[in-house]
Amino acid sequence: MLTPWYMWLFMVFLITFVIGVITYVNKKGWGQWDLVDKDTKALTESYFLPAWGLFVMRLVIFAFSFSVMVYNLAEFKEWNFTFYTVWNYTILITTFFLLTLESGFYLHNARLPKFIGRAAWILFEIECANVILVDLVVWTVLYEAAGGGNAFVDFTSLNVHAANFFLMMAELGMNRITIVRSHMCFLFTLVTIYALITWIRMNTGSLQEWPYFFMDTSAKAAIAWYIGLFIVHVLFYMAVYGLYVLKMKFVNWREAVNGSVQDTGEDQPLVAESSGLSYQDNQA
Length: 284
Known about the structure:
- By secondary structure, the chain is an all-alpha fold.
- The chain is 66% helix and 0% strand.
């Protein structure tokens, strides 16, 4: 069934909303690009590992995740971008590729162009939220809808629906990248692009059925489903931000115990001296 006209109007609203939010965020300076443009350590050093250790971890994760994609291509002769899961695992591979490049260049006292650092930063934030969202939806909703049993239980599926979580949490736990709340607008962008492409494919006959039941635009509650998707993405992005805050609290506590943080006598939160940044610096 073709997408109803009012759903296309809704899509126009979504696209306008996303563009408007991104424009407003940049106009207000909430992108905080200086955190990676000027701080060479933000993307390349760790609170818990030496820089070379972070590089090795990223290289291993990239090689492993890339091998999962290669295995799937060799075994099934496809890497099906119909599914949001595949989009997200591809983003995961790209994220670790860019972060590995950043670390490698840093170890050789060189820097990549700023746009690559920004891209790595944004993709990292997006993927941290999406691995949690995708994995939970698969195992709590889609697994049961598929009848349970051996559904989703194979090498590729377990890696893109389970192991991916641990890969991203390892990176989140080890790195010094700031999670900026206003960057969730880029997550909105991903969701909107995926939805738009899926709608176009369904309406042109490239797809014969919706990849997920909640994307069906002919359903009476379609608009509510799509609004719900945006809300759920916001919640999981904020959950990742919460994990980042907890990490910074631990880092600041450890630095305070080690005597790296000096008491200024002011009512200010402890800030890890080794980073020069705190989660409280991120007010956007």
